[in-house]
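Our platform keeps sequence and structure together, in a single record for each protein. Because each token names a local backbone shape, the row as a whole describes the fold. One such record is reproduced below, unchanged from the form in which we store it:
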Amino acid sequence: MNVREAIRSVRDDYVEQFDAMVALQRAKRSDIFVDRRMTRPESSLFGKLYVPDVSFGDPMTEWLDMVPRDRAGALPGFSLETPSLVVEVEDLWWDDLRLDHDGAFTGKLVSWWFDRWMPRADSATPRAEGVSGFIHSVTVDETWMNVDLGTATIDALFNLLSIAQNCGAKSVRVTRGRR
């Protein structure tokens, strides 16, 4: 299995669980919304924005986030090496990715990535070319980021690694974040 396949398998497992949870909620309620962003002014989230896995009501009255099942055993670590960047993946969770690096994130580049992958406030507004799915939340500091990659494709992660590289990173460590 190559690196893209390994990452895709983690993403696909998460999205399979996500889709099942959404189907279950749709069977229970008709006022369900998926990939609807909300403002969280009290939070430390980037842009003060958050996308619950599902939300209910219009306007939103409540939301629900899926708790993915634990894996049976640890995912073996792997690495990705390019001439200018080494990425060590110790533990990859699609909804709880922690990325540490030896560069310094810039607001401009993180904002570009965030705007590309976060849902628009107005869903009628066109999205970036080739974007599929959405990230659900981001917390960022100069040398680290914690991301819920939500329904975004693996391109969101590869874009993020490119952002870290463009911010001066030579090495990146990916692991589980908050748990």
Notes: The longest strand covers residues 171-176. Helices lie at 3-28, 107-117, 154-166.
